[in-house]
Specification:
Helix content is 31%, strand content 14%. By secondary structure, the chain is α/β, with parallel strands linked by helices. Helix 1 packs parallel to helix 2 and helix 2 runs parallel beside helix 3. Bound molecules: flavin mononucleotide (FMN).
Length: 389
């Protein structure tokens, strides 16, 4: 007898696009509710800047029934709107508007989110642009998004999701939002800085601390939310790779997961093919921590560029051409390197001057595959061992 209590369900048909309708992915995972939106698959594709996840990746993910996320940071750089420094902030807004529109067209009915980092200078402008242009969800980390509700107050359908790494931060956000804005988060992303890619929400000396384990923090946050009587879904991020990881963390209380590194090696990822190639044939030891000029540690691939940063043997682009960060060691103290330049170069496939962010699962990428293949594998109906086909 099958003793799996979860009922497999066939979600409503996926929306059609230019490539024609695809059969919906059949799953026994529960759907994910975030505010007024429901994703058929409880998977959020993590925002990846600069322009690693734009409309192409986000719409491919949303079309299959998961949540596709456009990273808003510095989107204007590789856009027709950017020519020189003074264009930067206006170009970011116009490019984000375009990307949301393109994602919507390619994934009608899908859930489209925008990632807005608190640490960037135009955080407020990006969040307002996302909300005003129909983002279903705004996901916001790299700092505590304490004012986010103010930026989206006229768009009640836009769900707001802070990224935190501790129960303390989740508690603080709930209290502040409730007190100052009269609303609560629509979900939390709980990100483990010991495994996630990109800028990390912990100091370098704190990395490796088991206090950040998702199996510990997720139940803590769930207990706090339940204790307060809040029905807020919690999504686990950092180091999630396969269905075993998803099942394990959902058993610990998560309502879904956010995954980023796994989506880099997809045909639809918006980065240059050479960016994706850097993720193949790697060893776990190729993942290192680099000090970002943002004053945060970042997790990245150990490339020749990172070695130059570590050895301080430099020859980096140092001129500030975008004023992109609120706090920047490159702009303010003439130290380290320009993060916008390094991430933009990586997106274009430049292995000499590019910085390639990655999570600790780097070495598990084996091939470039379609998004649909990744999601089908992650969500396939599971039978208990030894039962049927
Ligand atoms: C290439 C890359 C770029 C990223 N850029 C961002 C970003 O712009 N904003 C953000 O909040 N998180 C960013 N992240 C973090 C991811 O959204 C995600 O939460 C994290 O990497 C999850 O861990 P995983 O990569 O092990 O799945 C980035 C991660 C990667 C790998």
């Amino acid at each position: 007898m099958i003793d799996d209590t979860r009922e497999p369900h066939t979600p409503p048909a996926a929306p059609t696009d230019a490539a024609g309708p695809a059969d919906p992915i059949v799953t026994d995972l529960p759907p994910l509710r975030i505010g007024r939106h429901v994703a058929r698959l409880p998977i959020v594709q993590g925002g990846m800047g600069i322009r690693i996840s734009a409309s192409r990746l986000a719409s491919a993910v949303a079309r299959e029934g998961a949540v596709g996320v456009i990273a808003s940071v510095a989107l204007g750089l590789n856009s027709p709107y950017y020519h020189k420094k003074k264009d930067y902030f206006a170009a970011n807004k116009l490019a984000l508007k375009d990307e949301i529109e393109m994602a919507r067209k390619a994934a009608p009915g899908g859930v489209i989110g925008v990632n807005c980092m608190v640490a960037i200078t135009d955080h407020e402008a990006m969040a307002r642009t996302a909300a005003e242009n129909g983002a279903d969800v705004i996901i916001s980390g790299a700092g505590l998004p304490l004012n986010l509700p103010a930026y989206a107050k006229d768009q009640p359908d836009c769900a707001l999701v802070p990224i935190v790494s501790t129960a303390k931060a989740a508690r603080l956000i709930c209290r502040r939002w409730d007190h100052a804005h009269g609303r609560l988060p629509d979900a939390f992303v709980v990100e483990n800085p010991n495994t996630a890619g990109g800028h990390l929400g912990a100091r370098r000396q704190e990395l490796g601390n088991p206090e950040y384990d998702l199996e510990k923090v997720i139940p803590e946050i769930c207990a706090y939310l339940t204790g307060e009587g809040y029905d807020i879904p919690v999504l686990a991020a950092g180091g999630i790779w396969n269905r075993d990881d998803i099942d394990r963390i959902m058993a610990a209380g998560a309502s879904g997961v956010q995954m980023a590194t796994r989506f880099v090696c997809t045909h639809e990822c918006d980065a240059d093919d050479n960016f994706k190639a850097q993720f193949l044939h790697r060893a776990p030891s190729d993942v290192v921590i680099v000090d970002s000029p943002a004053g945060l540690p970042g997790r990245a691939i150990a490339t020749e560029f990172v070695r130059r940063v570590e050895d301080q043997t430099g020859d980096f682009a140092m001129q500030c051409f975008a004023n992109c960060l609120r706090k920047c060691l490159c702009r303010d103290d003439k130290e380290t390197f320009c993060i916008a330049h390094a991430l933009d170069r990586a997106q274009r496939g430049d292995t000499h001057d590019g910085l390639f962010f990655t999570g600790t699962n780097l070495a598990r990428s084996e091939a470039i595959v379609p998004v649909r293949e990744v999601l089908t594998e992650l969500c396939a109906v599971r039978r208990p061992a030894g039962v049927g086909a």
